[in-house]
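[audit] Reproducing an earlier prediction to check determinism. Same input, same settings, fresh worker. If the tokens differ from the archived copy the diff job will pick it up downstream; this log only records the rerun itself.
[audit] input (274 residues):
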Amino acid sequence: MKTLFTNLSLLLFAVSNLQSQNITMEKLHMSLREGSNFYSKKVLESEISGIEVAQISITEKPSNQQINNNTKCIYLFIKGNGSLLTSNKKYSLEPETFFLPNQLTSFAISANKKDTLHFLKISSTLTKQDLKDLKDFPRKNTEEIYLKKFSDCEPYTEPIKSPNTVSRTILPNKYIPRIAMGTVKTKGPDKVGAHKHGMLEQLFLGLSKNEVTVYADSASIKFPEYSLLHIPLGSTHSVTVEDGAEMYYVWMDFFRDKAAEAWLETHNAIKEEE
């Protein structure tokens, strides 16, 4: 009986360990069917509690967006050109642009003529604590529209990355409770060193020409452009890029609580010369 119990325990441990090493990834749909002018699909559904990610692709007809007061929404425009129309202003949209509506509750997104605009809409359901924390954030961060190209965002360095890597913070903390985002860009051979963080959930979004391998504990997966990947919580993970290939992705950190944001202190901001 003791031997049976021991073997069963080892089996359960092995199954549990295998599940924790699973890397979930979903490729985005980057072409519309002939005659179609709209596509929308939830991506990596139910992977992270309180977070919903949807891919939206549009051509001719505008996409009208409505946001409720208990949700913060982030838009990542990844391919194609278009425009953003509010009640009193029109903004141009280019590939690799970040948009945070803040107090806007309705607006329209359109693709340019004969173009297809592809973007992700990331919705975060605010907790009671989030709503309290928002009141302590700088008013500019929570009231004004935040629209910025990735390449215009502040760069930073990090001990786990080589000097050849260009990293940028596209969404600093103190804009949306418990969320921060950035980009990582380099050419191979290079890597992001192995590290772990049990205090946050993390998604990776592969951008144009991204062609890397992601490792988490003993698992690995090829991570191409226009894919969304979930790093297993608490895993030791890293990223490598081979000679001649490119690494270019967005990291998205979803912290369990406010204290966990101390992880961002490992990022050392670089003030670029004007």
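[audit] rerun output stored. Observation attached for the diff report: Residues 2-20 form the longest helix (19 residues).
[audit] end
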